[in-house]
Amino acid sequence: MDRLQELTQQWKEENLLMPIWMEDKRLHMIDQRKLPHKTEIVEITQVDQLAKGIKDMAIRGSGAIGIAGVYGMLLALKNSGGNKEAVISAGEELKATRPTAVNLSKTVNRLIEYAKSCPEDSFYEAFMEKGCDILEEQLEFEKRLGKYGSEVIDDGDSILTHCHSGALAGSGFGGRALSVIRTAFLEGKNIHVFCCETRPYLQGARITAYELEKFGIPHTLITDGMSGYLMRLGKINKVVVGSDRVASNGDLINKVGTYMHALAAKENGIPFYTATSSHTIDFMLKEGMDIDVEYRSEYEVTHLNGQLITTENTRALYPAFDVTPNEMISGIITEVGVIRAPYVTELSKLK
Ligand code: RUB
């Protein structure tokens, strides 16, 4: 059994909710578009198929697409019998699929650089080892940030989360925001989660609520526009979201709607946290608003479950992410601890 097989076996025994894994030279991926009604596992034998799956959101969430980048390059390694050019070109193809979440491009770039520096004769073994190291490291980060994050969760908290920053958006333990929430719950804290449905793709309704139910964590689904009022009523007293990218000044780029919740939290004096990994910090990005956010098809807004919900002529807009200024963020939860302002100085220590 090679190391990847051993790891996969170990993760299965741990009962992780993995978004993607490799077995018998094939990738297996849960098609997240079918959740929660159907757990469809798609088998992937070619990098093209995986690239399409990322683009079409069959697999999504910043951590998960970073991991998918690793698996895709390992697939190319196996398929090509260790051809360096094929592995690098797979990385380039995968990187181009989704631009905003930085984990994908950062992880793939890391592997491309590694591939380039590897001697030809030991390339297969060395690249496989590196890929496995990264996969293990990502899961380890997830568990560690959960522990640090749990320190900001108090017994009795009612926590708002947006979109889906959970196991299937990460390595399978709980991703980022849900690792924090899950760890606090496993530690015996009495908590309740309000999860936003997250229009238009409904990641919150379809996937976050599904995972919270699986983990046995008490939760209530709300529509995105309800958060402010519930904060005013005192029904929500903390916010924890994931992050697709963090700029070097601490600005947060996350699923569209996040900024709105942060504004409401600030107005109501409610702590707002993002859970992330140090790999999601983009030190090349000075401020969040410097980013070109991904715009997705208006079809995703005008249609629900493939059904047109507007008139034929209604035009729609879908910036998939927004930017929350760092001054609205109480803390950035990472695998090395909770980082607090001044962010430029504190985050630079993670370089
Ligand atoms: C996912 C999304 C999630 C983030 C953060 O976007 O915005 O909130 O990925 O979660 P999409 P995490 O569904 O468009 O991929 O930090 O756990 O990835």
Characterization of the model:
- With 351 residues, the chain is α/β, with parallel strands linked by helices.
- It has two domains: 3-142, Up-down Bundle (Four Helix Bundle (Hemerythrin (Met), subunit A)), CATH 1.20.120; 144-348, Rossmann fold.
- Helices cover 41% and strands 17% of the residues.
- It contains twelve helices and 16 strands.
- Strands 6-5-4-7-10-15-16 form a seven-stranded mixed beta sheet. A four-stranded mixed beta sheet has the order 11-8-9-14, covered by helices on one side.
- Helix 4 runs antiparallel to helix 5 and helix 5 (102-117) runs antiparallel to helix 6 (123-150).
- The protein starts with a helix and ends with a helix.
- The mean pLDDT is 96.
- Ribulose-1,5-diphosphate binds next to helix 3 and strand 9.
- Ribulose-1,5-diphosphate is lined by residues 60-63, 101, 163-165, 169-170, 175-176, 203, 242-244, 254-255, 276, 320.
